[in-house]
Design goal:
Layout (H helix, E strand, L loop, with lengths): L1 H39 L14 H21 L3 H23 L4
Length: 105
């Protein structure tokens, strides 16, 4: 009787060890994946933005862009050219901001 109980206990322990090993591999894989994601993910500031601009800079960017759009719409007579120049302005402003003001982390 005791040999039978010992054999069943050994089988249970073997199954438990196997499950524990599977669980440990899953936990290790999850940890490695989280570490990789943490390394690859860009670091944001406290407010969630990647690059920071002062309030004065943001207002300046908006004002200069609106002045340029207003100049295009008042000085250019052709409607198609106005629309094209406005679209180009909207697309070019972010690149110009980075070139002029630079990226600050």
């Amino acid at each position: 009787m005791s040999k039978e109980r010992a054999r069943r206990r050994a089988e249970r322990l073997a199954v438990l060890e196997k499950e524990k090993a599977v669980r440990a591999r899953k936990v290790a894989r999850r940890g490695r994946r989280q570490a990789l994601v943490r390394r690859l993910k860009p670091r944001f500031g406290r407010d969630g933005r990647l690059y920071h601009r002062s309030r004065r800079q943001r207002i300046g960017i908006v004002v200069v862009t609106l002045l340029a759009v207003a100049a295009v719409w008042t000085l250019i007579p052709d409607l198609a050219l106005r629309i094209i120049l406005t679209a180009m302005l909207v697309l070019a402003v972010p690149a110009l901001v980075v070139v002029v003001l630079g990226r600050r982390a």
